[in-house]
Specification:
183 residues, 8 helices, mainly alpha
Length: 183
């Protein structure tokens, strides 16, 4: 469990730096390239620590998930994946949803939290969901948002198709990837 907690602290601690007053100070001292390199290495170390810590954590039940929670999660995940895909591809979804990646991560985190009732899952999925919500609020407070220009609806169809393809792939390899088969 210690590696899971260490990973959460490293990963999310470094992810709060870009939206804090520390970023300009680090860039001034290290330079832009070195800052990005250090940021990436700490993020990777945190991610690896989270994955290892989660995989090594013993099952410590906190609650019994509702019978519908697994089906709810499976129904929610296509929307989450589509939002994640929409983050870096031109589309009109970003004209409606200001932060598609953060909203997608929030849905992923809260959905998995509802469907799992153990301590390690609560730590992992709550940390992603809460970070995303905090980041949405922080970015929205800046107030300097201009929606992107409209693009062809073909881009929207492409984002949805890509999201559904990624969801389908993840659905079938979930057991291999996480040790928790869905089928």
């Amino acid at each position: 469990m210690i590696f899971l907690i260490l990973g959460v602290v490293l990963f999310f601690g470094i992810h709060f730096v870009p939206s804090s007053p520390l970023k300009p100070m680090f860039i001034e001292r290290l330079g832009e390239g070195a800052f990005k390199g250090v940021f990436s290495l700490i993020s990777l170390a945190g991610l690896i620590s989270m994955i290892y810590g989660f995989s090594e954590s013993s099952f410590q039940p906190l609650w019994t998930p509702a019978n519908w929670s697994r089906d709810f999660l499976i129904a929610l995940m296509p929307f989450s994946i589509i939002l994640l895909c929409a983050a870096d591809i031109p589309n009109n979804i970003k004209r409606i949803v200001r932060h598609p990646m953060l909203l997608g991560i929030s849905l992923w985190g809260f959905g998995h939290l509802i469907a799992n009732g153990d301590l390690a899952s609560a730590i992992l999925f709550t940390s992603f969901a809460v970070y995303s919500v905090i980041n949405i609020v922080t970015v929205n407070r800046r107030g300097n948002y201009e929606p992107p220009e409209a693009v062809s609806h073909r881009w929207d169809l492409g984002v949805v198709a890509l999201g559904l393809a990624v969801f389908t792939l993840l659905f079938y390899i979930h057991g291999w990837l996480t040790g928790m088969p869905l089928i």
